[in-house]
Specification:
About 70% of the residues lie in helices and about 5% in strands. By secondary structure, it is mainly alpha-helical. A hairpin with a 2-residue loop joins β2 and β3.
Length: about 240
């Protein structure tokens, strides 16, 4: 006998609840297959669940759509910040800028390596540091770094920061609605389990094959075990060979 298994995706949960609601008032030998109380509970819950699920899908879609543009802006900011630090180090090596001035940028005065800019947090930190450092050095009469200039770096850094805040908000929205959907799943499974138990109770005395058909028609999902599936396939093959 196959075993039943509750839905494991939100779309499957929605389909199971919709299928049960569509059977509202259906009777078997004068007996309601699913109680009115349960149908009403499923109907009330389903509307909230679908609304939350759709909102999460919309938030996720907006995040993905925005991410393409954001990744380009992030890449540009990383390139300009990295290049500025490299040019600054070259100026120090050529003695055009005193190495002690690197401390204004929070850079190690004895190290010409570019800091790790792999994360968003690092990019924000170092972008702010080099902008402040260059402004401080220029205010003391220092010659500006060129190719890129700090003005060009600022443009791409500010675009990145603005986009980062937008993307962060979208991520938070997606995460919040994802958590809300996750919180509702146990209740969805509880209602579906109650519905399926009621359905199977109505058809418990039917022959196994007929019970399977009846319950499946009401949305109960059954799965065959590996041995059972192989036996069914073998029987079908034998039937085919017999007729041939």
């Amino acid at each position: 006998m196959p075993y039943r298994r509750l839905p494991n995706t939100d779309q499957a949960r929605i389909r199971a609840l919709e299928n049960a609601i569509s059977k509202d008032g259906v009777r078997e030998n004068g007996q309601l297959v699913i109680s009115y109380k349960t149908i009403q509970e499923a109907r009330n819950f389903l509307e909230k669940f679908k609304r939350t699920y759709r909102l999460h899908a919309q938030n996720f879609e907006a995040q993905v759509k925005s991410s393409k543009k954001y990744q380009k802006q992030l890449k540009n900011a990383r390139i300009y910040i990295s290049h500025f630090i490299q040019v600054l180090n070259m100026c120090v090596i050529r003695n055009e800028i005193k190495k002690e001035n690197k401390s204004l940028y929070n850079l190690d005065i004895n190290d010409c390596a570019v800091p790790d800019l792999g994360s968003e947090a690092a990019l924000i930190k170092w972008g702010e540091s080099i902008i402040k450092g260059e402004d401080q050095r220029l205010s003391k009469g220092g010659a500006p770094v060129y190719n890129p200039t700090i003005a060009k770096v600022k443009v791409h850094y500010n675009i990145f920061c603005e986009s980062y805040n937008i993307q962060k908000g979208l991520r938070n929205n997606t995460s919040k609605t994802m958590d809300e959907v996750a919180e509702m799943r146990p209740k969805a499974d509880e209602i579906i389990l109650d519905i399926w138990n009621q359905i199977e109770e109505v058809y418990k005395d039917y022959p196994a094959s007929q019970k399977l058909i009846k319950c499946s028609d009401f949305g109960v999902v059954y799965y065959y075990r590996v041995k059972e599936q192989k036996a069914i396939e073998a029987a079908k093959l034998q039937k085919k060979l017999t007729f041939e």
